[in-house]
Amino acid sequence: EKGGFDSFMDKEIHDQPQAVGDTLLGRTDVDGRLVLDDLRIDEAVLRSIDKIVVVACGTAAYAGHVAKYAIEHWCRIPVEVELAHEFRYRDPVVGPRTLVVAVSQSGETMDTLMAVRHAREQGAKVLAICNTYGSTIPRESDAVLYTHAGPEIAVASTKAFLSQITAAYLLGLYLAQLRGNKFPDEIVEIFDQLREMPGRIQQVLDRADHVRKAAREMSDVPSVLFLGRHVGFPVALEGALKLKELAYIHAEGFAAGELKHGPIALIEEGQPVFVIVPSPRGRDSLHSKVISNIQEIRARGARTLVIAEDGDTAVEPFADEVFWVPQCPTLLSPLLATVPLQVFACELATARGLDVDQPRNLAKSVTVE
Ligand code: M6R
């Protein structure tokens, strides 16, 4: 059942090109327009929403963070992301013009389910992004957008995460199309690019030996930090969560811009730091700012493990290791940059002799509050 892999997690990491491809399958009509058949919320209602609130826990919440960057940019609708267990205890402002998006692999996470119930009581429409047919959260939601990742067995979420991000992109592109957004050409271009992503994820997997080697060499480190900016920030959080869950070592993700506001004090000789570098082809000056961050931490002794886009030679002078990923539009880059971090956590935990499919103290779905 593990398809020749040593663990379900390793298999599921390698299933990701297919999981993303399957999530994209059958979502366009003959004219190439996006159709989300399973969305079942009246188009007039979707046109009238003035706010989106994503509720989720753990890895699914990080997919929500990525969704925020993409949907706000493509649709100009404000998007909040909230941990489901915080949402309902803070008297959130939601109503009939709010679309609440509940992201859950299992569809059974109690905290997320309670947030769904609370949102509906307030009159909000709820859309579930879910991987499990007929589970409770989609049943109790107004609509569902299924991810087609297939069953995820390992406790640590991998292919479900990439599929959730993919579904969130589909939702964003669909809303942009429906509401007549400002950049129709960009939407068509992004959808074409999205269809290229399974092949690019496969390329990242094909290059993963370098990550595995680095992970084995670092199997006794006490702590690893992760820095990212823009959509690289949720990727950093996810990289840290994977390492905590699987390898039981201290790991923390930061927004790279926060460094000077505190976390840089943690940097000492030999401290490993992953840095997810934004594309040099992207807007703004984010790329050069993150390069400066790498210089700053390296000057203080950090061991820098850099995830960068093919051709970004500017990172090389400051990187102890570079893990290259193919070029793609910035907003889609989490689908690539996450993969080396998953492989790293899986390999490091395995090198420590741990069971990556069943980490201690964790359950696959958390059905209690
Ligand atoms: O089934 P869900 O997507 O609702 O689960 C949410 C979290 O419990 C889950 O993502 C958890 O954080 C994973 N162990 C992450 O690897």
TrEMBL record:
Localization per record: Cytoplasm
Give all residue intervals belonging to the SIS domain: 41-181, 214-359
Name any GO cellular component annotation: cytosol
Task: Name any one GO molecular function.
Answer: carbohydrate derivative binding
GO biological process entries: carbohydrate metabolic process; fructose 6-phosphate metabolic process; protein N-linked glycosylation; UDP-N-acetylglucosamine metabolic process
Keywords recorded for this protein, A-Z: Aminotransferase, Cytoplasm, Glutamine amidotransferase, Repeat, Transferase
From what superkingdom does this record's organism come? Bacteria
Substrates-to-products reaction catalysed: D-fructose 6-phosphate + L-glutamine = D-glucosamine 6-phosphate + L-glutamate
EC number annotated for this UniProt entry: 2.6.1.16
- Write out the function statement from the record: Catalyzes the first step in hexosamine metabolism, converting fructose-6P into glucosamine-6P using glutamine as a nitrogen source.
Can you name this protein? Glutamine--fructose-6-phosphate aminotransferase [isomerizing]
State the organism named in the record.
Cellulomonas aerilata
The shown range, given as first to last of full length, is 232 to 600 of 600
